[in-house]
Amino acid sequence: MGLADVHAHLTSPRLVADEAGILERARAAGVTSIVVNGLNARDNEAVRALAARAPSVKPAYGLYPVDAVLREMHELGVDYPREGELPSAAESVAWVRDHAGEAIAIGEIGLDGHWVPEALWPRQEEVFRELVALALEADLPIIVHTRKRERRCLEILEEMKVTRVNWHCFGGKVNLARALAERGHLLSIPANARRSESFTRMLETLPRDRVLLETDCPYLSPDRARLSEPADVAGTAQYAAELWGVSVAEVTARIEENFARLFRVDA
Ligand SMILES: [Zn+2]
Description:
Layout lengths: L2 E6 L10 H10 L2 E7 L3 H13 L3 E5 L8 H6 L13 H11 L5 E8 L8 H18 L3 E6 L2 H10 L5 E4 L5 H9 L3 E4 L7 H9 L5 E3 L19 H12 L3 H16 L4
Parallel strand pairs: 1-2, 2-3, 3-4, 4-5, 5-6, 6-7, 7-8
The structure holds zinc ion.
Zinc ion binds next to loops.
C-alpha cells in the first residue's frame, strides 16, 4: 500500500522516453498506484499496453472533452494541436465500450468550455453523456475534466444519478468544490498546490475523506524548471501533512483509504 497518483499521462510523448526512470522514482517515493488516463482511442490503446507491462499502472479509459469535438473544431477553423489524425469520437466511445471491463475508471471525460467554442457544447455534452452511461453500465467511477463548465457537469451527473466521481484539477470556486464533497465526490489535488491559493484552500477546507492526489503529468509541475511525474504526489502529501498538522504517514493512510473506497481496489 502507498500513495496514488490518480491522474497521470505517462503515454505523453514528453514522458515516454523516460518511462523506466519515472516508474522507478514513483516506486522510490512510495507511489504504488498510478492511474494513467487515456485521451482518445489511440491514447487508450497506449495506456492499455503500458498497464500490461507496469503493474503499478491502473488504466482509465476515456475521451478528452476537446478530442471529443476536435474534428468539428478544425472544421470551424479553431486551432488545437494534436499530433496526427485522431480517431473520431464515435470510434473512441466504441473503444471505451469494448475495453471498460479492463479499466479502473472511465476518464478522463467531461466538458471543456475553455478550448471548445460554445457552438459545439451540445455535441460535447452528448458524447459526455454516452461515456457516463458506459461508466454506469460497467459500474466504474468517472474521472472528470472540466474547464468553465463545472456547474453544467454537475447538473448532468445529478440528472444521471452518478455518485462515484473524481474531479481532476478542479478549477471552479472552492465553495463549489465543498458542495461536490458534500455529495460524496472526491477531488484530486495536483502537485503544484503549494503555489496555488485555490488548491491550498481546498486542502485546508475539504473533508479529508474527499481528497485524492494527482499530478496531471507532464503538466502542473511543482517545479517550473522540469516536467511533473507521479513521484511528485509525495510532495503534495508532505504539504497536506503541514496544513493538517498530522504526519505524512497519516496523510498517506487517508489517501490510501480514499483511493480504495472510490476505485474499489487496494492502493
Ligand atoms: Zn488529464
